[in-house]
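hey m, so remember when u said the tokens were messed up on ur end? i reran from scratch. heres the input so u can diff it against urs
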Amino acid sequence: QCPCHGTMRGYVGDQYKTSRVVFYPGAQYEGYWKSSHMCAQLTDIIPLFNAIHPNAVAVFLFDQSSNHKAYPEDALLAQNMNLCAIEVKDSDSGQGKFRDSSFYVRKQYDYAEQQKNKKYKKYFIGLRGILQQRSMYRNEAERYSLKRSCNNVATADSRCCAIHIMERQPDFANQKSALEEIVEGSGHKFELYPKYHCECNWIERYWEAAKKEARRECDYSFQSLNRKINSFLDIVCPPE
């Protein structure tokens, strides 16, 4: 929703776009709304906003949901990393799929020759290897004695485990959420509503007004709701 248009609609090039997605959740329908759906919708919306509001900068506001704060699949997250090196295949997802970092310009992957057929296997070098490359160990003994995780709360000078040391590195500490990267990468601004203050969240007010309209006009059947849902959402926007 935008303050002046409500649901945005228009052409981006020769394609007609809308900022609204009607989604049918459930295992027997379209599954469940995930961060990947949110990223895809946002990626679609930004060019539409740019077409409707040329040269304007938007402030995209999101509430504090897990989908809105989820990280990209290749995010630099120490808690997702193994301590030791592991083999990584291109078809793998999750472990070992981390973006390159310009900080300290160090490689996070290495290749080892497989003698049997002279092919090369790709290895993620792990927390231990990255800390070694960045000269983060005080001595050789610490390199091999440091555990992956201590399960304690980190302090400003934490050297209790590899994860806490790595999390304080600038490139890891400054890792942004997937939505924030999309928004700021497009030249716009990203903000989260305050936690636990739904009265500050404009979308709650819009949703409240739409549900009030639905209760007044709907016969409480799914077929009727499905047929009228867009009119319920349109009648209360653009917002006052």
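this time it looks ok to me. The beta strands are 9-12, 15-18, 59-62, 86-87, 109-114, 119-124, 189-192. if urs says something different then somethings off w ur setup not the seq
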